[in-house]
Structure prediction request, 271 residues.
Amino acid sequence: MSDVAVPSQPPAPRKLPARLGQRSLSIVYLASLVAGLLVWQLVAQGYSSFVLASPLKVLARLWQMTLSMELPRALGGSLQHMALGYVIACAIALPVGLLMGRMRFVNDLLDPVVNLIYAVPSVAWAPFIMIWCGLYFEARVVLVVIMCVFDMIIVVSTGARNADPRLLAVGRAFGASPWQQVRMVLLPESLPFLFTALRIGVVRAVNAMITAELFLAAVNLGAIMKQSAVRLDSAAVLGILAVLCLLGLALQELLLLAERRVCIWRPEGRR
Prediction:
């Protein structure tokens, strides 16, 4: 009796090492930025520099403003009210979101209010902020808080609501106090949502920072944009927009790096 040939199974696909995969992602990341700059350069060649400055002219204008210390001073002033407003928004959103996610009474009490205010465009609060807080530093901080806090509350409450009830039950079974359950079970379980809320909030804070400086008293980066627009200096206007884009991107990447270091039990945290 002849032996029957058994078809061999195809070899399992080989996984790329984590470092190699991360390096590939970084190359794609940089390639997308370079491709965007090339497209910008090609499009700008068909227009006057008053209408659309090229990346090289924008870079030269930014370098000029940096040497004169105009840009560093303006950016430093803008970051002050952005950072303070963001910290206040985090201090409000994290506990309120956790309470709404875990306590039905608090959710029923606050959810309609949060959704009603969230539905109003943030810029629509600018006239009221002018009446309540004036036009200067306090008003800019308030606008940053308003534009950040409600997005963060919604994300944090969703994370707390989706926490695994079995883990909380285990904590209760071992006699954990309510505070211990929050600190040792709920917070670790909600960390991915908390970091998502922080990333959303920091982008909204950058948005609110320049919005406040354009709609309220024109200072710092907002003043540079307004004055440059009057002079038809598109290179300076685009330069400030580029600074804002890079600022938001850098802050998001820092938070993503912190998330990978903290949430080491998640697959993406081991990259």
Residues 148 and 204 are 6 Å apart (CA to CA). The mean pLDDT is 82. The two ends are 53 Å apart (CA to CA). The longest helix spans residues 178-215.
